[in-house]
């Protein structure tokens, strides 16, 4: 039936740059302190006390921009990153008190392939099976099965270093599934994949989940989260800002539709006029020349917006309309794009 995961007030503060932190501008900086005789201290809060529960046998997504804390959460759950506080449980096991037992239950696909380029695809799978105590016959059968599933049979005896990025990613996922783990962790699994490979990967993830396996994935791809996840948590600056099923989260957006408007300026009378339009639930100034309008309709509201702008002697310069989506949800909570 799968294994559940529970996270309680998990905290992680880096005092040296973590791998990826240099490009993770969304990490929340806790402080840089210095005194007369002391060096400046690097301190970045990656996780600020998050708690969540993942049910056995579900696909759970961690959605957020780069540097939000998603990979750090996966790193803690897979015993690679030690937290500064809180607790993480995988089934009945405390991840940091019983790491050996946890490792036997999990499969991990890192954000970037870490394959042994001196081996062939088949050898990579066979050696991985041997690490987990599979017999020669069992690992040979399992390797052939996975090579076929991931469309790699014709390259099974080629060196991994000759593979394209998409093929390496497929091989990385096949390796993680080689010992048939109860929980599969996928960190940005479709990053850089072409659409055809992405759809193949999604179908394989769904098939594995149908076996009762628990799957945890991180992504900043809204379509991926919407297509795969039973539930998800949206993370930003090391905090969970929203959680629920994709449909619940999209339904929580005021009005559903988001109209991003650009004017030459946004005086108060114009903001008030926009707020008074039928179907408008909320108007949020973005800056001196922009406003986000949340409404129960989209394109049919444009003529009224144009009229309001003309009445205020303001020029409407640009309009973009988004239907209810996880991107719209993120904008509502943070005021910025999920890919910022």
Average pLDDT score? 87
**What's the order of the H and E elements?**
EEEEHEEHEHHHEHEHEEHEHEEHEH
The N- to C-terminal Cα distance equals 38 Å
User: Which structural class should the secondary elements be placed in?
Assistant: alpha/beta
Low-confidence stretches: 21-39
Helical percent range? 25-40%
Annotated CATH homologous superfamily of the largest domain: P-loop containing nucleotide triphosphate hydrolases
Could you describe the 3D structure shown?
This protein has 340 residues and is α/β, with parallel strands linked by helices. The chain folds into two domains: 246 residues, P-loop containing nucleotide triphosphate hydrolases (Rossmann fold, 3-Layer(aba) Sandwich), CATH 3.40.50; 70 residues, Alpha-Beta Plaits. The strands form three sheets. A six-stranded mixed β-sheet has the order 7-8-9-4-10-11, sandwiched between helices. A five-stranded antiparallel β-sheet has the order 2-3-1-5-6. A four-stranded antiparallel β-sheet has the order 13-14-12-15, with helices on one face. Strand 13 and strand 14 form a beta hairpin.
């Amino acid at each position: 039936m799968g294994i559940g995961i529970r996270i309680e007030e998990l905290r992680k503060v880096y005092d040296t740059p973590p791998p990826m932190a240099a490009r993770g501008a969304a990490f929340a900086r806790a402080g840089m302190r210095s005194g007369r005789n002391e060096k400046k201290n690097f301190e970045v809060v990656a996780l600020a006390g998050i708690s969540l529960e993942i049910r056995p046998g579900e696909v759970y997504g961690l959605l957020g921009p780069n540097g939000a804390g998603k990979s750090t959460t996966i790193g803690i759950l897979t015993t690679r990153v030690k937290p500064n506080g809180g607790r993480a449980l995988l089934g009945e096991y405390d991840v940091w008190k019983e790491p050996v037992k946890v490792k036997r239950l999990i499969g991990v696909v890192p954000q970037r392939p870490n394959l042994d380029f001196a081996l062939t695809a088949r050898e990579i799978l066979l050696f991985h099976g041997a690490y987990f105590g599979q017999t020669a016959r069992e690992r040979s059968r399992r390797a052939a099965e996975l090579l076929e599933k991931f469309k790699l049979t014709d390259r099974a005896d080629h060196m991994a270093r000759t593979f394209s990025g998409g093929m390496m990613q497929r091989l990385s996922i096949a390796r993680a599934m080689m010992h048939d783990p109860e929980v599969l962790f996928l960190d940005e699994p479709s990053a850089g994949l072409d659409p055809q490979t992405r759809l193949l990967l999604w179908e394989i993830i769904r098939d594995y989940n149908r076996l009762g396996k628990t799957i945890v994935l991180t992504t900043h791809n809204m379509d991926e989260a919407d297509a795969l996840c039973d539930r998800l948590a949206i993370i930003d600056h090391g905090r969970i800002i929203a959680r629920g099923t994709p449909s619940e989260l999209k339904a929580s957006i005021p009005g559903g539709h988001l109209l991003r408007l650009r004017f030459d300026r946004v005086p108060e009378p114009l903001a008030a006029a926009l707020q008074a339009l039928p179907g408008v639930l909320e108007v949020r100034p973005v800056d001196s020349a922009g406003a986000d309008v949340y409404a129960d309709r989209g394109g049919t509201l444009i003529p009224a917006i144009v009229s309001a702008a003309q009445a205020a002697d303001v020029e409407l310069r640009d309009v973009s309309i988004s239907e209810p989506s996880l991107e719209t949800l993120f904008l509502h909570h943070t005021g910025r794009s999920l890919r910022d």
